[in-house]
Amino acid sequence: MDAEIKPRKLRIVTGHVAILEESLNRLLNDYNAIVWHFAPIGDVMHGTVVLLHNSVLMQQRLATAGGMRPN
Predict the structure, then answer these.
(1) Mean pLDDT of 27-54
(2) Do residues 54 and 31 make contact, with C-beta atoms less than 8 angstroms apart?
(3) C-beta separation of 44 from 4 below 8 A
(4) Is the dihedral of CA 61, 38, 29, 9 positive or negative?
(5) In this predicted structure, what is the pLDDT of residue 11?
(6) How far apart are CA 69 and CA 48, in angstroms?
(7) Which among 56, 38, 55, 36 has a CA at the least distance from the CA of 47?
(8) In CA terms, which of 15, 25, 60, 67 is 20 to 30 Å from 33?
């Protein structure tokens, strides 16, 4: 029986912007960027992006909607 492999809920991607862009193009179908920061290191621009899996965001939305009461 195959064990279900759950995706990582949080991803932190960092590096030269060209490498970062390549990584984000693969990940943004399943993740949302929640924090990002760019800074020059020497003559090269680097970035760091924190990604949260879509399933976590959906759980938050459902929890918020479930806690709302009509006026």
Answers:
(1) 95
(2) yes
(3) no
(4) negative
(5) 95
(6) 39
(7) 38
(8) 67
pLDDT of residue 61 exceeding 90:
no
Q: Which residues contact 57 (CB under 8 A, 6 or more apart)?
A: 32
What share of the chain has pLDDT > 90, as a percent? 65
Residue among 41, 36, 34 at smallest CA distance from 16: 41
CB neighbourhood size of 9 (10 A): 12
Domain boundaries, the chain: 10-66
- pLDDT value at position 3? 61
* Residues with Cβ within 8 Å of residue 44, at least 6 apart in sequence: 16
pTM of the entire predicted model: 0.75
